[in-house]
Design a protein that fits this description.
Ribosomal Protein L22, Chain A; 7 helices; alpha+beta; three-stranded antiparallel beta sheet; four-stranded mixed beta sheet
Length: about 260
């Protein structure tokens, strides 16, 4: 498998969480979904996790949620281990004040973030710059206008409400994923109000998103770049990256060990 460049690249993987391993194993959107069976593969991936991660997985009542958690975290460990040059089960994570994970020990110069929705996960890995991602299924939101009125800025709400009803859901999710990616990159958790900053015109899918307003720090707007990420049909995704002068490289399969 070729080396993964991370010096000036931000690598992004968009992968299915449930698939059947065959031969050497790979994860790709064309892989066969394996909701049942494949117990050996699931056991192998569970063994890659830390005791804490295994305890979290065991706490899920739903077999599908348990399986999704195990596969997502095994894939994350496989990707990070490949880049850091260590076995996936030897990676050690520590957690920031608001729960954002980072690597301790080997690979600690890597920054990464993960998001998943339904059966698709999104992972971004960068070198020495904070990064955040978010992916959402387009069926997730309920009353878009009510949620927008509660969480978005007045300008963002107005932009969505001016659209025809059949375009409002996508516009809302476009805005939401950008905001979530930015907050995850910063490690804010849920502590920061979503209407405290703006992330571009959600009505314009073709325009490059960017941070337009962020209260508290006059340099914050120039510190970050935002981008929408290509996702499977029925999903929307975004990434936030600290700094400039980098290239986002997207991958839609992973052929490393899992």
């Amino acid at each position: 498998m070729p080396e993964i460049a991370v010096d000036t690249r931000v690598n992004v993987w968009c992968l299915p969480l449930l698939w059947r391993l065959e031969g050497a194993g790979s994860a790709s959107p064309s892989g066969a979904v394996a909701r049942e069976g494949d117990d050996a593969a699931l056991a192998r991936m569970t063994a890659m996790l830390s005791p804490e991660e295994r305890a979290v997985a065991a706490g899920f009542d739903s077999p599908d949620r348990r399986r999704s958690y195990v596969v997502a975290h095994a894939l994350l460990r496989s990707i990070l281990g490949r880049i850091a040059g260590v076995a996936p089960n030897e990676l050690v994570f520590r957690y920031g004040q608001r729960g954002k994970p980072e690597l301790a020990g080997p690979g600690q110069n890597l920054q990464f973030n993960m998001s998943h929705s339904r059966d698709v996960m999104l992972v971004a890995v960068a070198h020495g710059r904070r990064v955040g991602v978010d992916i959402e299924h387009t069926d997730e939101p309920g009353d878009v206008r009510r949620i927008a009125a509660r969480f978005l800025s007045p300008r963002e709400r107005d932009a969505i409400e001016r659209l025809p009803a059949d375009r409002q859901r996508d516009a809302f999710l476009r805005c939401w994923t950008r905001k979530e990616a930015y907050m995850k990159a910063r490690g804010d958790g849920i502590s920061r109000p979503l209407d405290d900053f703006e992330v571009g015109d959600p009505a314009d899918a073709g325009r490059q998103p960017r941070l337009f307003k962020a209260s508290g720090d006059p340099n914050e707007v120039e510190r970050w770049e935002l981008a929408d990420v290509s996702a499977p049909r029925g999903f929307m995704a975004a990434i936030a990256v600290e700094g400039h002068g980098f290239e986002v490289v997207q991958h839609n399969e992973w052929t490393g060990d899992v």
